């Protein structure tokens, strides 16, 4: 049930006609209450889409009652008309379910530089809000898909409370955040500042470390809403772990569904001087096309790993670097290790561990082996 797994949330998805395919393209998630705590993290792209700009305004006070999301149009780089359209979407939801416009966030995904047809969006919102239901999470998750091949949902239960989430994303995956729309809900009782702290901590080690193709979107949005319907104020560590688990699960689903990928790769750099250096090393490897090609071809080419991390300025001694593919250490001390033929890359999951010698910090970045075939076969890109 994803976003409707926690008590006090309803959702719905429907078709407004924004996609030539006629597939669902509009979703609404409603926080029925009693509380309206909210937090959000947005793209750092210097061309933020109109819905991002409006949602930033609406989440500034730490309260939300609803989120409206559309696929089939990013409403990005659309000027004042785009801002007006995003505000109209929020106002339409507000009027339909008895809220203030400022209590509604807006998310859009699709092709950049195309105005949203409000003549389709407005009646679509009215229809979708009329269908809001405690079991509408699946329909909402399906409605926000673009090039996704499947809806992405996750639920983690606590002691009498629940965290649920849904995500959209398959291409243009790169920090921060990764190309995504994410809505997370919980019936735990949290103040806005608490929720914000937990969300930023969770996204820092999950969505911010999903890096498929090095391309950052204009529309990235992660919104969390907490309504306190369970009546339980959870232990901070326990809640943080649950929220991070939902984000991590959704991030892995995003990477797994990236177009053209045949492997999901977790790159861990350990023994770095700082966490930031560990992230930098792992991200450099993740963005190496030569490394991706090697994995796609089933070749544990550790030379490409060393070549990639060797371009960084992070602290390590080259003669003390080890590289391990799926538990087989093929490189020891910057030289030949175990027989690379022992490594099995036939499965979808690949674990790469690069051990440095500069400290105790470590970090993991998720990526995949996107191939040129996807670029060749897909002329139209979207957020």
From TrEMBL:
It catalyses: N(2)-acetyl-L-ornithine + L-glutamate = N-acetyl-L-glutamate + L-ornithine; L-glutamate + acetyl-CoA = N-acetyl-L-glutamate + CoA + H(+). Its EC number is 2.3.1.35, 2.3.1.1. Its main location: cytoplasm. Substrate binds at residues 146, 168, 179, 259, 378, 383. Keywords: Acyltransferase, Amino-acid biosynthesis, Arginine biosynthesis, Autocatalytic cleavage, Cytoplasm, Multifunctional enzyme, Transferase. Belongs to the ArgJ family. This is Arginine biosynthesis bifunctional protein ArgJ. It comes from Naumannella halotolerans.
